[in-house]
Design brief:
CATH topology of the largest domain: Rossmann fold
Structural class: alpha/beta
Largest sheet: 9 strands, mixed
Number of domains: 3
Strand order of the largest sheet: 1-2-3-4-5-6-7-8-11
Distance between the termini: 7 Å
Number of strands: 11
Helix content: 40-55%
């Protein structure tokens, strides 16, 4: 499936006057600003502008593409320069500030489009810990980069006439929305669209709702299926969800987003795992004071850096799936931070486990497990009469069901031959059930036969489970499921061959067995889901 580089190569020969500026073009420019253009693009306050083609010529004199990762942003510049759609765009007013003393990281430039409009691009966060600190910092204060973005946009709108588009990826998306909100009232209508690509929203305590309402209809928010950053302080706008070729947190990179033609490959829902994390984070933020968020952010990110981590990839390749290292890094933090961390991960665990249990219970295996435990309870509750009661109840239910289906078959308008066949089948089945209920002595034997079918089915289900999940199921789980299959097969055979073996004591034992194995099977499923979670749940279509 194509990504942004494929799009640049595919659409590159068509100029903007032929095909208008669109969301995918926006993403390309929002990723382009991640490159270091110091000394290559005229700075803020300077006159002049330079084409993407010219910038690339000079950039690659000192930057090699030989060992570039396929997701490196250099590729965006490299291929843009090769095609007239992007190579002929002009760039100006470059700003790049990285001031540790002020905790200020801010990069932006202005793109001049052929129709006289301008696109202001703000750089976002990479996977580096210092960048992510700023994303979390918006949970308790307006950051310096936001104020710088507002000043930059106001400067551009004073310097240039024409329509304005604003956008950015990750923190850059947040800066785009913030700067548009704080643009002077007299010129704010010049802003036609604000693009936030997986950008976080705003701390509720600090959001100016009146200003946001004025631009709300112009905000375009695009997020990947596994989204955490873009749902941090979720914006009250429609979210366009895009498929990604990456897993979990790596989907944050716009280089992994899937594109088809001139549009994103959309999905209807976020992944279920992503939704769990978002609920946990929302719950944590809602219960933490501003000071607790400040302390939490400071201590957690400082302790991660002290432990030698530079990027989130150092914490866990699975992204937010494994927070073990973060928990350990918090061990030396202030006691109030430990409390906040404990609440957050407690909320996360409860949400995660709730989803896992619901998934297990809704599956075919889960239904079987619940049925087994219910059957076990019945055996233990009425061990002396269980065979008569259970067999009689089943016979009665089947007889009533057959009677209902017989009436429906008689009223159905269909081929006479099929109709007659259905009616004969239900008459015979109903007669057989009545025959069993008419003689109490037959019911225990009938029940033993049914129990044999149940246990044979359970043995088959265990074997089927092993075969179906042979690529992911652990060795221990295979052993226990196979042991259950053998035991169930043995009990099924005994039920048919020597039904008299099941007296009071053995009925109680059998009931206990059913409850235990139902519970064990459920635990096995939960453990396997924990180790091998669904990678892409809630998609309305499969990935290519």
């Amino acid at each position: 499936m194509a990504n942004i580089i494929n799009y640049i190569k595919w659409r590159g020969d068509l100029e903007f006057k032929q095909v208008p500026f669109n969301k995918v073009d926006n993403l390309a420019l929002a990723l382009l600003v991640y490159n270091d253009f110091t000394g290559l693009i005229p700075g803020k306050g300077e006159n002049g502008r330079v084409s993407v083609y010219e910038v690339a010529e000079r950039y690659f004199q000192t930057h090699s593409i030989d060992e570039l990762d396929e997701l490196a942003f250099d590729w965006v510049l490299y291929y843009m320069a090769k095609y007239k759609r992007f190579g002929s765009l002009y760039l100006s007013d470059y700003v790049d500030v990285d001031d540790a003393d002020r905790n200020m990281v801010f990069t932006a430039f202005t793109v001049h489009l052929p129709d006289g409009s301008h696109f202001v691009a703000f750089r976002g966060t990479t996977m580096e810990i210092d960048d992510w600190r700023l994303d979390f910092q918006i949970s308790f204060e307006e950051i310096e980069a936001q104020r710088a973005a507002a000043r930059y946009l106001q400067y551009v709108m004073q310097k240039y006439a024409g329509n304005i588009y604003v956008g950015g990826h990750s923190k850059g998306g947040n800066l785009a929305v913030y700067s548009a909100m704080h643009a002077p009232d007299v010129v704010r209508n010049r802003i036609k669209k604000i693009y936030s690509f997986d950008g976080p929203g705003f701390c509720p305590e600090l959001l100016d709702e009146e200003k946001f309402a004025d631009i709300q209809e112009r905000v375009v928010h695009v997020v990947p299926t596994f989204c955490v950053v873009g749902m941090l302080f979720e914006l009250p706008v429609t979210h366009e969800i895009v498929a990604s070729s990456a897993k979990k947190m790596a989907q944050h990179s716009g280089m992994t987003w899937k594109i088809e033609g001139n549009h994103f490959v959309n999905r209807r829902f976020l992944t279920e795992e992503s939704s769990v994390y978002n609920r946990a984070i929302d719950d944590w933020i809602g219960n933490a004071t501003m000071e607790q968020r400040r302390t939490f952010t400071r201590d957690i990110f400082d302790s991660m850096k002290a432990a030698g981590a530079v990027s989130l990839n150092d914490i866990s390749e699975g992204g937010f799936h494994d927070f073990g290292t973060i928990l350990l890094s918090a061990a030396n933090s202030e006691s109030k931070t430990k409390i906040v961390v404990g609440k957050f991960f407690g909320s996360l665990w409860r949400s995660f486990e709730k989803i896992k249990i619901l998934d297990a219970l809704k599956s075919l295996q889960g239904i079987i497990d619940i049925f087994m435990m219910f059957l076990g309870i019945v055996f233990r509750t009425i061990p002396e009469a269980v065979y008569s009661v259970l067999g009689g109840a089943i016979a009665l239910i089947v007889a009533v069901w057959s009677a209902i289906m017989l009436v429906k078959a008689g009223m159905r308008d269909e081929n006479p031959f099929l109709k007659r066949g259905r009616m004969i089948f239900h008459i015979v089945l109903m007669w057989f059930m009545v025959f069993i209920m008419s003689n109490l002595e037959r019911i225990p034997k009938w029940t033993n036969f049914l129990m044999a079918i149940v246990f044979f089915s359970l043995a088959f289900a265990s074997v089927r489970y092993i075969i179906r999940y042979k690529e992911t199921i652990s060795g221990k789980a295979k052993f226990w499921m196979m042991l259950l299959a053998v035991v169930n097969l043995y009990i099924g055979i005994i039920s048919i061959v020597i039904p008299s073996r099941f007296d009071y004591t053995k009925s109680v034992t059998l009931g206990s067995y059913l409850i235990i194995i139902g519970f064990v099977r459920l635990i096995i499923q939960l453990m396997e889901q924990m180790h091998n979670p669904k990678k892409k749940s809630r998609f309305y279509e499969d990935d290519d």
